[in-house]
Amino acid sequence: MKQDHDTIDQGRRALLGAAAVGAAATVGFSSTIVSAEGRKTPVTAEHRWGMLIDTSKCADGCTACVDACELENGLNLQERPHGLSQQKWDDQRSTWIRKVRLQDNLSGQITQLPLMCQHCEKPPCVDVCPTGASFKRADGIVMVDRHICIGCRYCMMACPYKARSFIHEPVEHKFTRAPRGKGCVESCNLCAHRLDHGENNTACAEACAQTGHQAITFGDLNHANGKLRQALKATKNRQIREDLKLNTGVRYAGL
Amino acid sequence: MAKAVVTWGIVSLMLMPLLYGTLAQAEAIGGFVVPTSKAAQLDRCVEPTEAMRRYHMDLIRHQRDTTVYGGIRGTKHSMSGCVDCHAGHDASGEPIPVAAPGQFCQACHHYAAIKLNCFDCHATVPKGEAWNQEPEPTAPEANWMMNLLDLHLPRGRVTP
What we know:
The structure holds two protein chains of two kinds. Chain A contains nine helices and ten strands. By secondary structure, chain A is an alpha+beta fold. Chain A folds into two domains: 1-30; 49-253, Alpha-Beta Plaits (2-Layer Sandwich), CATH 3.30.70. In chain A, the strands form four sheets. Chain A has a four-stranded mixed sheet with strand order 8-1-10-9. Chain B is globular. By secondary structure, chain B is an all-alpha fold. Chain B has two domains: 1-31; 35-150, no CATH class. At the A-B interface, helix 1, helix 2, helix 3, helix 4 and strand 2 of A face helix 2 and helix 3 of B.
């Protein structure tokens, strides 16, 4: 489905030239759909979005981040296909964040953490993708261009964090802001639609803060004085599977 | 004088289909617009109507890459925009899917024998559009994710 961009541009230019007068008169109607002011220029590497998750603040039994992610992206609208067992459904249902519970068998110590796409600087999912659908946006967000994704699921195999889901069945209900459908892989996109509208937080981080736990700090890894970099400096933290040298955008404290 | 005007009117009416090309001759320009859609209240599309008829697929595709790679959303050629403005409404004011039989995108594509898969993923009614809109209140399934805990990471602490 990948098309030659130049051809498209030329077509559009010709069209706009021919229709300049009409287009000028149309301007008044062009903004009826956008409620907030969206960005007008393409994203750049000026920002690199990331998170710090403090596992010591992540509460047992709390699923606020997971629930918020579901509501934001319409994942709560998923329905178990007829005839599929609950257990199978639990396994294959799309999840962008999951809460993981780690237990040290010797000490009995339990650690909670939300795990999602780690937005690696060198994402293995991008390396293995045969079509270029799995890509890293200029601002560091790793995502799937589902117009190009062929559903081969190599990326799911390659991801050390099991962060991606495959949609097995037709999707009946979805939100305009989060299109999703059968045959493609999907994962956390750091609420790109929010960032593109100038918002500076993700649904999960916002929900976590609302519960009072404040376990998730979202921010710009490139902004030396920003809240994320400050938090990273103040709290000892690490990457999960640091040994892979992926330079993840999501860091964890208390691990 | 009046007669001349009428005659010219008739002549130009007869010329219209020729001028505007052969696509969907069965309908007058704008004839596919659903009366209960926002579009029916307006007199123009986001580009001149003849151009939209012919080039909307190129405009949308261009917008698609602009959004997915550039993060530029909701400009005038966005797919969400087409749906928002062109979706009809039933008697109770509920939007009707644009891809449903007889509705805007479907009616003309059916006529022109085009099949789209876009609406496998894209919402066919305006729903949960804005980034900050309140989503429909739907109770998340009770604790389905409890079963996912512990599943995928190795047992025991992740230690260096």
